[in-house]
Amino acid sequence: MQTIAASIMCADQLKLEKELRDLEKANVELLHCDVMDGVFVNNLAMGPYVLEQIKESANIPLDIHLATENPSNYIDLFAPIHPKYISFHVEASNDVVRDINKIKEYGIEPVLALSPQSPIEMIKPYISMVPMILMMTVNPGFAGQKFNYKVLDKLDELNALMETMEHRPLIEVDGNINQHTIPLLLERGANVYVLGTSALFNKNEGTYTEKVQQLRELFKSEEFC
Which residue blocks in 43-197 are alpha helix, DSSP H? Predict the structure, then answer.
């Protein structure tokens, strides 16, 4: 079963409450919340006050993605919001095991994130410690980037590493996820699909409900190919 997560950074920030209501109507299952520090990535996004308000206003669980240096500091800052997931980049962590355990201590599910240029070997020692891996299919920082097809090979590597695992982590994918890239990701066992400007928050005709339904139909059709 595939899960749809909406990248709330890409929503209309001046109409955020309406956006949340429309996403609820569309039965989106997660709100993907990018936190950026201007250091790990060359952009700034989504502080704790905004996410607190989103958590209070929406009935959709939060999936917080820390695209930051020193994620340990940000775990303490965002954990009181009580999201379902907090992901952090292994490239940015000084102590991956410590940060995984810190998230768990807050009663939150930890996720390891990996940028397109980073090798799978970086997360290999920690895969069994987390319920999900976030594979970025674009460089974190900005919406609207081109899909990095080299990540498909990395997904094959990841699947090979997890082949014999009894409790296999979910695979989350983020970056230009749309009707063209989804079939390639389905082939490689991706479970959670983060939708941004290319599939959901665009100016194409149709409501969020209609767009989400079209993608769910795509999931079903590809499963039987």
Answer: 48-57, 71-78, 96-105, 151-162, 182-186
pTM tops 0.85, yes or no: yes
Q: One of 37, 63, 99, 174 is an active-site residue; which one? A: 174
**Is 34 part of the annotated catalytic residue set?**
yes
User: Helix %, strand %, coil % for the chain, to 5?
Assistant: 40, 20, 40
Q: What is the pLDDT of residues 91-132, one digit of tens each?
A: 999 999 999 999 999 999 999 999 999 999 999 999 999 999
Domains in the chain, number: 1
Query: For 9, what's the count of Cα atoms within 13 Å in the CB-facing half-sphere?
Result: 24
* Average pLDDT score over residue span 164-181: 95
- In the numeric block, the tokens 């749809």 are attached to 4
Catalytic residue among 12, 22, 34, 156, which?
Answer: 34
d(CA 127, CA 90): 11
Domain containing residue 170: 3-223
What is the rounded CA–CA span in Å between residue 65 and residue 88?
6
Indicate which CATH number applies to the domain containing 120: 3.20.20.70
Structure tokens at 179: 């009707």
In the chain the first and final C-alpha atoms are separated, in Å, by 16
Would you call 174 a catalytic residue per the annotation?
Answer: yes
Strands, DSSP E only, in 90-201? 109-114, 132-136, 170-174, 192-195
User: What is the DSSP secondary structure assignment for residue 136, as one 8-state letter?
Assistant: E
* pLDDT one-digit tens code per residue, 34-55: 999 999 999 999 999 999 999 9
Beta bridge partners of 67: 36
